[in-house]
Write a structure and sequence with these properties.
It is a single chain. With about 100 residues, this protein is an all-beta fold. The chain has strands at about 15-20, 20, 25-30, 30-35, 45-50, 50-55, 55-60, 60-65, 70-75, 80, 85, 85-90, 100. It is built from no helices and 13 strands. Strands 1-5-9-13 form a four-stranded parallel sheet, with no helix packed on it. It has a domain at about 30-100. It starts with 15 loop residues before the first strand and ends with a strand. The protein is globular.
């Protein structure tokens, strides 16, 4: 998803995700998110309750302003057996790989 005149503009982080998500053995390949002026960017922008389990992502890229991670920009939940390859970039603070902010530890 690209807000810079690219292919699609339909991805919209609508706030925090509440609940559990399981990858169920599937792989998400070549995900691209470009949100140059937005914080908390990733497959999930923010996850505040539940768990993330068995999510596998390969290739692709995620970019935003701050708090940018492939899986989540912010998480306060349990993350189990998740993995990713690809690139993560940002222009602000807190740029990570799988996720950035972990609260409650």
């Amino acid at each position: 998803m690209d807000d810079g005149g690219g292919v699609a503009t339909d991805w919209n982080r609508s706030g925090s995700i509440h609940g559990s998500f399981t990858g169920t053995g599937y792989t998400l390949s070549n995900m691209v998110i470009v949100r140059a002026t937005t914080d908390y960017i990733g497959l999930f922008g923010s996850v505040t309750t539940g768990s993330l389990t068995g999510i596998k992502m390969t290739g692709g890229s995620v970019s935003g302003q701050g708090a940018v991670g492939f899986l989540a920009g912010k998480t306060v939940v349990t993350v189990i057996s998740c993995s990713t390859t690809g690139t993560v970039a940002g222009t602000g603070a807190s740029i990570g790989g799988l996720w950035v902010h972990i609260q409650g530890l």
